[in-house]
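Ticket opened by: R.M.
Priority: normal
Category: complex prediction / small molecule

The reporter submitted a protein together with nicotinamide-adenine-dinucleotide and asked that the result be attached to this ticket for the collaborator who will pick it up next week. Submitted input follows.
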Amino acid sequence: MKSVGINGYGTIGKRVADAVSAQDDMEVVGVTKTKPDFEAELALKKGFDLYVSIPERVKLFEEAGLEISGTIDELYDKLDIIVDCTPEGIGAKNKEMYEKKGLKGIFQGGEKHDAIGLSFNSFSNYGDVYGADYARVVSCNTTGLCRTLKPIDDLCGIKKVRAVMVRRGADPAQVKKGPINSIVPNPPTVPSHHGPDVKTVLYDMDITTMALLVPTTLMHQHNLMVELESEVEVDEIIDTLNNTSRVMLMEASKGLGSTAEVMEFARDLGRSRNDLFEIAVWKESINIADGELYYMQAVHQESDAVPESVDAIRAMLEMEEDPQKSIQKTNKAMNIF
Ligand code: NAD
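Result attached by the on-call engineer:
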């Protein structure tokens, strides 16, 4: 049983904590919080040991009546690996501390690839991360792109990808972010960083992306145009995506024609937090014209990359050499299709 710590029990951290707890070969030994807020209370209610990530703030937790197990310094020694789920940019700074402690670490997509040195996606480069000390699970958007492009590349080869990403303005709980009533090219420059980010795990993919922010909190939406190496039928693409783990086909004709309806479906699945770990591809959007494949997909930004953190733990701690075995084990424990 491997011992895992979660630094930053927020949107991603609390999901990774539950995902790790669902496995039978690893356990959460502690989670950290910077302040005694509702998420700190939640961690305790769920039975996680709570550590304070900014030691000077111990008093705040005591005043709030929250039982802490110590500061983050006391957590490090108990761990085989730490999953850093702190906000963008903080993970890279924390890496110096993990290095000093000789502790392996997994980071999230908000960190820059160069700051960590190695990126990870379960389906794209599991073997390259096997035994590594530090790796970053690519972002929600990049995970979404990799999940569908990799099986298509394996089926018929990809010459070139162009993708337009319609990004959610904020996560549901982020009351201070926008836009509220605007469509914002973001970044305003073309190409966006998403294409280069895909290449950190699918090294040879020729991909160019551009992105917009829109006033929604539910999901991201991607529009892909893919030049193919060899001729295939639409049905072969449908069959391939249908048989790809962590990908789901959705049909507008069955009432799933929008991100709102896809998230209603996710709520109906009855999973914790209404998470949709799978990438939802609209079946009717899949078309091929002049050797170019077109399709549209939706990404639940808060959860899609979470199972990848579990696989990254298995790869980095050399618990399972075969990516498919880790993926299936993670899926089974998390009830993922
Ligand atoms: P979040 O703000 O919801 O959670 C971050 C947590 O870290 C909070 O509990 C916060 O209190 C804590 N924290 C803040 N400063 C800290 C510090 N100095 N030390 C320790 N903990 C600290 O953020 P999030 O959305 O979970 O994002 C975490 C990472 O995951 C980022 O790299 C982000 O880019 C990435 N990510 C986010 C999403 C998403 O949609 N939210 C999707 C994929 C990847």
